[in-house]
Amino acid sequence: MPVMSPRLLNWAGNIEFQAVRLAQPASLDELRDLVVSSDRVRVLGTGHSFNALADTTGTLIRLDRLPMSIRIDESSATATVPAGARYAEVAAELHRAGYALANLASLPHITVAGAVATGTHGSGDRTRTLADAVVGVEFVDASGEVRRLSVGDADFPGAVVSLGALGVVTQLTLRIEPSFTVAQEVRLDVPLDAIAGAWDEVFGAAYSVSAFTDYASGTARVWLKRRMDMPTPTWAGGRAADAPVHPVPGVDPVACTPQLGVPGPWHERLPHFRPDLVPSAGDELQSEYFVARADAPAALAALRGIAARVAPVLHIAEIRTIAADELWLSPAYGRDSVGFHFTWIRDAAAVLPVVDLIEEVLLPLGARPHWGKVWRADPASVVARYPRAGDFAALRQRLDPTGTFANAYTTALFG
Ligand SMILES: Cc1cc2nc3c(=O)[nH]c(=O)nc-3n(C[C@H](O)[C@H](O)[C@H](O)COP(=O)(O)OP(=O)(O)OC[C@H]3O[C@@H](n4cnc5c(N)ncnc54)[C@H](O)[C@@H]3O)c2cc1C
């Protein structure tokens, strides 16, 4: 099978796409023609996933040449955004108009549709995955038909976190709220014992809380992102950082959003990283597992138990909370969750045995892997962790009977 030239890689460089061609339609009609004339199709967002979820043996489509205008509807408090727009652009425009999204991921570089398709999330006891902001989805199905589903439609909760398997999403309608201000502060040297013993106080200490650790040190650095329009909680473990810090120890914090408690617009504080610079370590792989919140202390203890194997291949690990939602393939479906995330060094041979070890301790706790990161579990056992997976498989069969949007990843999961 010929591969595109030049080689097309994902952001991390660990996946070389096998598609025979890359297409960038400039209109909806061009997109529909592409879909009906191709045996196999997938969409590529900004390629920030760490596995072959976006890949295809046929046509890979990018939506960055489609019109990029955002429509705000004040009466319904929603914004309809192009699927291929990046959160950086959407958030800036919403803020200019006086609006906000409830939450953002650690980076604003990713496309809205790509993030929504994988159940991407930020942190917050009361905030849900980014997909939960979706109230309407428009997509081109395998027959080239443009379909629209909204909250209340029976298929809607299956069509949002779609893994790109139902069609080409062209636009998404998102719930918005009045713009708000956030101040970000980092607490250093917080003992992991203190987190384990006061989970609710720590993760309830701000609108969005992240704890970064390598598990081996026995301590964490806790990012507190406080909404200025909400009461200031009382927890303040460890000591306040007196200079900006990067989540990855030793890395220059220049790429980070402002800290030190300086208030600023929601979209310049909720992500850890600025849109104009390389996020995170840059040279990395990532994995993440979601456990029910009640199982988080056990998961933390299990990870501390294997810290000697985990720490040597880590840049850093992050712990976040995500509120339950009802989207069938959301990793937080039906349960308030805690995400245990790992930013690995980019050495798959060294990292994969440690991923196996992590799965050995977390899968028995009911962990669900992040769809867009490195995981190794048996696909059938992963699907079994989603009570509505059978409904999703039926929806996929109905919307895409000949498997236009299937690839090796989705076939391993759903047949
Ligand atoms: C540095 C870094 C930090 C990260 N931080 C976080 C984080 O804080 N929280 C978190 O949860 N994840 C995080 N991730 C993972 C990332 O959010 C997800 O992998 C996300 O899906 C990437 O979006 P993308 O636009 O790059 O999509 P891609 O990786 O390009 O695609 C993801 C999936 O979406 C599908 N897709 C994309 N566009 C469409 C469309 N229009 N129609 C149908 N299907 C489509 C693709 O086919 C594919 O299946 C991070 C990744 C990196 C590299």
Number of helices, where a helix is a run of at least 4 consecutive DSSP H or I residues = 12
CATH architectural type of the largest domain = 2-Layer Sandwich
Largest β-sheet summary: 9 strands, antiparallel
Structural class: alpha+beta
Distance between the termini: 23 Å
Q: Over all CA atoms, what is the radius of gyration?
A: 20 Å
CATH domain topology of the largest domain: Alpha-Beta Plaits
Work out the helicity level. 10-25%
Given this structure, which CATH class of the largest domain is correct? Alpha Beta
Parts with pLDDT < 50 across at least 5 consecutive residues: none
List how many beta strands DSSP finds. Answer: 19
- Name the hetero compounds present: flavin-adenine dinucleotide
Shape by Cα distribution: globular
* Overall mean pLDDT: 97
Q: What is the beta-strand fraction?
A: 15-25%
Count the domains.
2
Please give a structural write-up:
The chain has 415 residues and is α+β, with helices and mostly antiparallel strands. The chain folds into two domains: 108 residues, Uridine Diphospho-n-acetylenolpyruvylglucosamine Reductase, domain 3 (2-Layer Sandwich); 199 residues, 2-Layer Sandwich (Alpha-Beta Plaits), CATH 3.30.70.2520. Helix content is 23%, strand content 24%. It has twelve helices and 19 strands. The strands form four sheets. Strands 11, 12, 13, 14, 15, 16, 17, 18 and 19 form a nine-stranded antiparallel beta sheet that branches. It has a five-stranded antiparallel beta sheet with strand order 4-5-9-7-8. It starts with 20 loop residues before the first strand and ends with a helix. The relative contact order is 0.14. The model has no long low-confidence stretch (mean pLDDT 97). The structure holds flavin-adenine dinucleotide. Flavin-adenine dinucleotide binds next to strand 2, helix 3 and strand 9.
